[in-house]
């Protein structure tokens, strides 16, 4: 769970298509982001994350403490933290 004081929710629809694509590609290419034992192409991983963003299962957050962005499950955000639109 994230501390609500340290994070800012970033509406993915407000990012440029290029910025969103780059953010998703960087996220799915990180060490530790694993899709199990099945090899999945970068394009497929990006499509999965994009679909999860579109349906609201995951969100983009900016951590003010670490100065980094991340994509996390929506249920990891405390319910009192509103998502800006």
Describe the overall structure.
By secondary structure, the chain is α+β, with helices and mostly antiparallel strands. The chain has one domain: Orthogonal Bundle (Arc Repressor Mutant, subunit A). Helix content is 32%, strand content 19%. The chain has two helices and three strands, in the order βααββ. Strands 1-2-3 form a three-stranded antiparallel beta sheet. A hairpin with a 4-residue loop joins strand 2 and strand 3 (68-73). The model has no long low-confidence stretch (mean pLDDT 86).
- Tell me, what is the CATH class? Mainly Alpha
Number of helices: 2
- In CATH terms, what is the architecture? Orthogonal Bundle
Unreliable segments of 5+ consecutive residues? none
| Element pattern in H and E | EHHEE
What global shape is seen? globular
Largest sheet: 3 strands, antiparallel
| Percentage of residues in strands | 15-25%
How many domains?
A: 1
Record the strand order, biggest sheet.
1-2-3
Instruction: Give the overall pLDDT as a whole number.
Output: 86
- What is the CATH H-level superfamily? YehU-like
Q: Specify Rg, calculated over alpha carbons.
A: 13 Å
- The tally of beta strands, per DSSP, is 3
Main attributes?
globular; Arc Repressor Mutant, subunit A; single chain; alpha+beta; 85 residues
Summarize the structure.
The protein has helices at residues 17-29, 42-55; strands at 7-10, 58-63, 68-73.
Topology of helices and strands:
Layout: E1 7-10, H1 17-29, H2 42-55, E2 58-63, E3 68-73
Antiparallel strand pairs: 1-2, 2-3
Helix pairs in contact: 1-2
